[in-house]
Design goal:
Blueprint: E1 5-15, E2 18-28, H1 31-46, E3 53-61
Antiparallel strand pairs: 1-2, 1-3
Length: 69
């Protein structure tokens, strides 16, 4: 079974007054699933349609293997 990774999804929300940038860390198996989850979350919490959410980049965030002392 594939392990979930943490992705950083960055983009803009298009509003009547202009564009508002966003970035969100999401746990998912692939970058595609992370992008889809971001669209779902912003749509449901902010009452936005998908055509108002522009995803510019989805990249994997590296987790530190050990705790620093």
């Amino acid at each position: 079974m594939a392990e979930e990774k943490t992705f950083l999804v960055e983009g803009e929300i298009v509003e009547k007054r202009g564009k508002k940038p966003f970035s969100k860390e999401i746990k998912a198996k692939t970058a595609g699933f992370a992008t889809e989850k971001a669209l779902c979350l912003f749509g449901s919490k902010n009452k936005l349609k998908r055509n108002r959410i522009l995803v510019k980049e989805t990249k994997e965030v590296r987790q530190n293997e050990g705790k620093e002392k």
